[in-house]
Design a protein that fits this description.
Blueprint lengths: L6 H5 L6 H4 L26 H7 L9 H9 L16 H9 L3 E5 L3 H13 L4 E4 L5 H10 L5 E4 L7 H7 L4 E6 L14
Parallel strand pairs: 1-3, 1-4, 2-3
Helix pairs in contact: 4-5
Length: 191
């Protein structure tokens, strides 16, 4: 059993003077964030076929053109297709033809990361705000939103007050749910 310190031992420890206890701690100034490096927005594209050629395709797959034309006329559109059958181009192509931002809601971080990398490689300004992003990266992306064509977020990000504030004043031309399993059961899509 450890021995208790005597009162003399306790008094031997000098307490700091009271005026030092209230002294504010020095703060470090954060370096300003460099802007997120983004390519200039490609286009403008006059037709969906010009935009399709930009993506490196000469023709549409089944249902893609009808779905894209529906999106371009601002109708609520549901496009269902098997994995790897070109669902993403149904919102990525119109994103290039609309003036504002396309907000893509997806629960899959790896999908967001892959799509953003592919879009950036094609010269399309895109980013993803994910739980893997550091605060510094998130701040850079938030600052870059006005320059983005596509922004990928997880469903829970839509309930984040800071995100909602950052999005105020941003023109969202298209809201897309990529991967329908992030829609709650019983979700109704109305046109």
């Amino acid at each position: 059993r450890a021995a208790r310190p005597s009162p003399q031992q306790l008094m031997a420890y000098d307490a700091p003077p009271a005026e030092l206890l209230d002294e504010p701690k020095p703060t470090r100034r954060a370096k300003p964030l460099p802007p997120l490096e983004l390519p200039p927005t490609p286009g403008p594209f006059k037709t969906i076929h010009e935009a399709l050629a930009f993506f490196g395709h000469s023709s549409f797959r089944d249902g893609q053109q009808d779905a894209i034309e529906s999106v371009l006329t601002n109708r609520a559109t549901v496009f269902l297709a098997p994995t790897g059958r070109g669902k993403s181009i149904v919102f990525q192509l119109p994103a290039l033809m609309f003036d504002g931002l396309t907000l893509v809601v997806s629960p899959l971080i790896s999908l967001m990361r892959d799509q953003v990398a592919s879009l950036l490689a094609r010269g399309i300004p895109a980013a993803a705000l994910t739980s893997e992003s550091t605060q510094r990266q998130q701040a850079q992306i938030i600052d870059a939103i006005p320059r983005l064509k596509l922004l990928y977020v997880a469903p829970e990000r839509l309930n984040n007050e800071d995100f909602v504030i950052a999005m105020s004043g941003i023109t969202i031309s298209l809201l897309t749910v990529d991967e329908s399993h992030c829609c709650p059961a019983g979700t109704l899509v109305q046109t």
